[in-house]
Each structure stands twice: as structure tokens, then as C-alpha cells.
Amino acid sequence: MRRTLKAASAALALVAATAGPAQERRTPPAAPAQAAAIPVSIAVDAGSPDAPVDPVWRFFGADEPNYATMKDGRTTLATLGALAPDRVYFRTHNLLTTGDGTAALKWGSTNAYTEDAQGRPRYDWTIVDRIFDTYRERGVKPYVEIGFMPEALSSKPRPYQHDWRPGSGSLRTGWAYPPTDYAKWEELIFQWVLHCVERYGRAEVASWYFQTWNEPNLPQYYWGGTQAEFFRLHDSAIRGVRRALPEARVGGPDIAGAGDQYLTAFMQHVKQAGTPTDFVSFHAKGNPELVGEGAGQYVRMGLATQLKAAENEYAQIAADPVFRKKPIIIGEADPEGCAACQGPANAYRNGTMYSSYTVASFVRLQQLAQRRGLNLEGILTWAFEFEDQAPFAGFRQLTSGGIDLPVMNVFKMFAMLKGRVVPAVSDQQRALDDVLANGVRGAPDIGSIAAIDGNRLAMLVWHYHDDDRPGPDAAVRLAIANLPAALRSNPRVTQYRVDRTHSNSYAAWLNMGSPLAPTNPQRAELLKAGELASIAGPSITMQRNGATLDLTLPRTGVSLIVLESGK
């Protein structure tokens, strides 16, 4: 979706949920019956197609690489791959970490590199091959994160595996340190990529992304060396990649958007060093918080925090005449920073707060890039699944026990936006600068994006607010002008919906009493509830060259309305 919203956002500024950890077992709040619906007018011009839809949403990732080969990991990857076969990418930590492949929270391993008693390298690609094979069998491609440091190469190997767990432990241990021998590190990467070319084919591996490490600007977590040592690590890794495959797509540095100038230093370094850089990558996260006390306490999302983090990195890229032309990947883009952490401030994840936030944030991340004339190629969601955990345990994930969560259904909607962007202007969509400065704290953000593909018009409408509290529905009128001739006579109208009662496995689980171990019939019911649901309506009134459609959209709800030829 790099230019999915280009025309609408550039010309028109795109004026165009409630979940809790399983142990809280909160019933999703309904809007008060007495609250008057908010009138919303959205104007869609189906006759003004502009740039092709570019699916920036098709990037995902997780800390734990070994979950991919487990039962629910395979199922989740299959769902992702089916959204856009061979166009979905997956990034993961720990692809070179030493260990036997046993998964744990924020941990994984492949044992790709060890040394014999004489210090000679031994390469074993068995586990990493299994991971990549699992991706490719399901239509997913690797976004290869080159890391972390094998124990035999670490300059500070003891202790090696961290003892982190939610709420305690230390994350940065031996895996996070520079190598004792940069030549061996480079050779490891060379041998790995060479092996991938032999296994998957040259053209296939050339379609992947390669970047070094994770968030090296956060020394308390992911990097135990200096900035200069990271730059040397990166240069060596990229040399190894390009020695094996000169046309490989390489970039970085996948830093955390921490408000610093690290990205500028990186860009200056790779230009001076002559290190090839095909894309630029950074992370941007929000910051939910608890507001109020006692029974009145609720989660307030930090959308503005995430957008400001992205804007800081965008500004640095835009200021560089070389890098401002390169593709950008937001290598982790999420409401907050720790998928494996639980707790009350993360009580947005299971329900529709997460799904509506995802739409509102993706639109603004694109707007900010487009306003600076930047090429945003991907927005990577750092959420996957956590194997063999309690149902709806409060992690940031796309599925729970193999059951799709509401946020997964938003990506199914994104995948249905095809063709070319058309303008969609909502009189209740918050202005970009207002959201960047303040988030969505007063009036809700009710907006739309749209695309036309031949005789098929798809319109996505969202209803978002930072505060996870009940609020009035939106009474939405879509006024569509300049419909294609084939859609002017009895078009088929389909509405897909994510809200409190549709496409919402979490709400279904709460309604059945929050079983810790759902029975087979209950699991079948939850799987069905997790599917993307279509609902009746909206009502449509045909006009000479267009139509009006009326629908009611609850707070934190998202609708995709599709018009197709009835013939």
C-alpha cells in the first residue's frame, strides 16, 4: 500500500475493542443505548483512480523463530501467506542464535554455527532450513534479520541464554555481543546465503530482504557493543551477503525509533564505507497507559507517540539526498514495544481496540511518509502467535491457539483493497497534524480509504478512539460519485465487519464463560467466530451515476464495503 492512499492523502489529506488479558475476562463494553449516533459523511469518487494499491501491510514478525514450525505457527503462517501469496514477508530474531531449537518467550535458536576444538567453524543449517521451508511452503518469504551472535563467536559468551520472562530477568546476555572475529562472522553470513541460493534458487533469494541485527541503538536490550562496533558488524554481514549473491536486497539498520539521531549516523557511515544499502529500516511504537482509578480505570492508546517516533526517522531520511529516494520499511510498527509482555496496560490486544488502532495508525504512517515525498514500502506488524499458552492470554498476537483474533481480520480486509486508489473524504476523519500532536483524545477518528479494480469498488471505513471506553455509534453515509457503468444497475453489495459481535473470537470466548480448555464443539465455535464475517447491508440508493449507502459502525469497529457487478 505504499501509494494506496497517495492521491487521497496528498490532495485531500485523507480527510478521507476492547480486549483484556484472559485473566481479566472483561466483557466487551457496548455503546450506551441512549447515546446519539455520530453523523458521518464520506464522499468517494470512483471515477478518479490514481496510483496502484501497494500493500504495505504485508510484513510480519516475531522474536521467537521456532514457533513458525509448530502447529499453531504453521496455521498462522498459512493464513498470512494466503492473503497475498509470495508477497508476504516474515522477520524474526534469533536465526543464528546457539541452541537446540527449543522455543521460549523472546528466545529461539538454530545452532547454525559452532566450532570444533581447534576453533574451526562448523555450519549446520538444519533448523534454519526448517523455518524457511515452513515459510515458503505457505507462500511467505523471509525478511532475513542477520542475528544474533553464536556462542562460539560472542566476545562475552557467559551467560549466553537470557533468563527474561514477563516482569523479571535480564534480556541482554551473550547472544547480544560483538564477535571475537569479524572475518569468521562475515564468512558465516557468506556460507549461509550461499546455502540459501543452492536450496531455494538465486531468483528466490534475491527477492528476500536482508538486514543486520535488531535495535542496536538500545544497548540495554539488544546490543552489547558500541555504535562503531555495530557499524563494523553490519558492514561485515552485508559483505558476506553480497559475496554470495551480488544482487541480494540489503539494508538496515532496523533501529528503535527512540527520538535520537542514530539513523543519520548510520546513513553517513554506509555512504562513507561504501556499504550497499537498498532500503532503510527503523521501528516505531506507541505507548498505551492506564488512566483513572478503580472500576473507572481504562487503557488509553498512544497513537501520537508512535507517529512521532516515525516522523523523527522520516525527517532524517528526507534530509539525506541519497536516502530520501530509497524504499523504507518500518521493521516493527506496533501499539507498544513488547509482544511477550502482559499486564493491564496491554489489555487492548484481544479485541477490537487493536484492530481499529491498526487501521488508524497505518493510514497516518503512510500520510506522514507521503507528505515528505518518501517511499514507504512496508509496515511490519510485530505480532504472530505464542504456542501452547492459555487462551487469549494477553500477548500481542494475531492468533490464539490457532484461532484468528480481530486484528487478523483487519489484514484480511487490507488484502481485499486492490486495483487503484480513489479519493475517499470523511468529514469526521481527524486531521493528520492533530493526530500527530494529540492522538485521538476528543472526537473519534472516523475515516475511509477506497480502491477500484475494474468493476469492483472496495471502501474501508474505521471508527477509532485512543480511549478504550464505550462511545456512540457512527451513522455513516457513503456518497459515491462516478461509478463505472457496470455498477450503476443493481450492484452486489457485501459488507465485511470487525466489531464487538462480528469477526471476534475473543468476544465469543467470553460469552461461553472463558473456558481454559475449550471442548471440541467450543473450539469449532471459536474458529468460526474468528473468521472474517459478512453482515447484512448497508442499504443502497442508486442515483444517475452513483449511489449512497448508509451503515451504522460501532466504536472501534471496521467495515469493508465491496460493490461488484451483479451480472
Automatic annotation (TrEMBL):
Keyword Signal: yes
UniProt-listed InterPro entries: GH (IPR017853), GH39_cat (IPR049166), Glyco_hydro_39 (IPR000514), Glycosyl_Hydrolase_39 (IPR051923)
One Pfam assignment: Glyco_hydro_39
UniProt entry keywords in alphabetical sequence: Glycosidase, Hydrolase, Signal
Keyword set includes Hydrolase: yes
Glycosyl hydrolases family 39 N-terminal catalytic domain residues: 41-529
Signal peptide start-end: 1-22
Similarity section: Belongs to the glycosyl hydrolase 39 family.
PANTHER family given in the database record: ALPHA-L-IDURONIDASE
Name of the molecule in the record: Beta-xylosidase
